[in-house]
Amino acid sequence: MSDSGEQRGTGERQWALILGASSGTGAAIAHAVANKPGLNVFGVHRGRYLDSAAQVERQAKDAGRRVLMWQADASTPEAAEAGVRALREVAGPGAVKLFVHSIAGASVGRFLSEGEDRLHAKRVRRTFDTMAHSFVYWTQALVASDMLAPEARLLGLQNTLKETHLTNTGLISASKAALEMYVRYLAMELGGLGHRVNLLKFGTVMTPALKHVYTPEALERLEEAHARMNPAGRMCTVEEVARFVGVLCGEEAGWFNGATIDYTGGMTLRLLDLVLNP
């Protein structure tokens, strides 16, 4: 492939690199950006949802896009380097318009517990590698391999746990706080080159991971609680989040940088009211 300035990262050569692309929010984002703004898709996944990964591949092809689903544990620097090399072979340099960090793999528990839910060092390291450090690993690999297209968008996903207390999620909150700092510093380092690095914060959405953690009865209670909390009277959907990621790829969103973009729909506005006036 040519590496001329006129062809770098333009037209049909632009790709979305999505970590965690086989299910949930990541899969929805892959489907959305393949249609609008029309990006090819390089999706990284662990292989837990093979049927869903195949569906993502079909949807991208149906949209007329190229797609490669790459199975690996995306949380290590070695995986980041290998994945970017694989993408460069099919896409060429300067092709990544959008990088989305949508992988999860956090441990829940208590820091001082003496039981099986103790957050020991291995769980801490694993959670931070997956939820925070890997954003840096993949960004470093993309820059080192000259893979970012002009005005590339790098996006981490954030939740509301950093701002509140939810039993057993302290390690998730801490790793998400680290991710926010990484986004701010990378925004400074890449901003002068024309790239944009942001966090998209949204509330609870129904995903396969959520269904794996909660029973159907608990999920029903979860939906009822969010219907009371959210001004819209319902939970947000992964499709809504995914469509907004497509918006962030556009020129209109080009001034967002180092930002935590609130897409919670006002989810936390009524918390105190619900506690005091149940």
UniProtKB/TrEMBL annotation:
Keywords associated with the record: Oxidoreductase
Gene3D superfamilies, per database record: NAD(P)-binding Rossmann-like Domain
The species this protein was found in: Myxococcus stipitatus (strain DSM 14675 / JCM 12634 / Mx s8)
Entry keyword annotation includes Cell cycle: no
Pfam assignment, any one: adh_short_C2
Name the record gives this protein: Short chain dehydrogenase
Annotated InterPro entries: NAD(P)-bd_dom_sf (IPR036291), SDR_DHRS6-like (IPR051122), SDR_fam (IPR002347)
Key word Oxidoreductase present: yes
GO molecular function: oxidoreductase activity
Family to which the UniProt record says this protein belongs: Belongs to the short-chain dehydrogenases/reductases (SDR) family.
